[in-house]
Write a structure and sequence with these properties.
This protein is α+β, with helices and mostly antiparallel strands and 94 residues long. It has one domain (20-93): Ribosomal protein S10 (Alpha-Beta Plaits). The protein contains three helices and four strands. It has a four-stranded antiparallel sheet, covered by helices on one side. Strand 2 (41-52) and strand 3 (60-69) form a beta hairpin. Helix 2 (21-37) packs antiparallel against helix 3 (73-81). It is globular, with a radius of gyration of 15 Å.
Length: 94
């Protein structure tokens, strides 16, 4: 049982949302670069179709999903240090 737990991969799911696509893509690139620099594997970014808000049809919300596989404490520490623009919302799931 102990070896089975060691073989399981931890996955950190990060969903990013923003109304500015360029700002969102830059933030995603920063996250991917940071994860790779700390020897974690990265899956994504996955582009999610944009959604329009009900109030304003011109206001598009762009989404990206990034999975970091087997993040280390160093990976999480470096991700906490990243400067995220105020227009980007981040949701993290373990």
């Amino acid at each position: 049982m102990q070896t089975k737990l060691k073989n399981m991969k931890q996955r950190l799911g990060i969903r990013l949302l923003a109304s500015d696509e360029r700002m969102l893509d830059q933030t995603v690139q920063d996250i991917v670069d940071t994860a790779k620099r700390t020897s974690a594997k990265v899956s994504g970014p996955t582009l999610v179709p944009f959604a329009t808000t009900a109030e304003k049809l011109q206001n598009r919300i762009y989404q990206r999903i990034v999975h970091i596989i087997n993040p280390t404490e160093n990976t999480i520490g470096e991700l906490k240090k990243l400067n995220v623009p105020s227009g980007v919302e981040i949701q993290i799931k373990l």
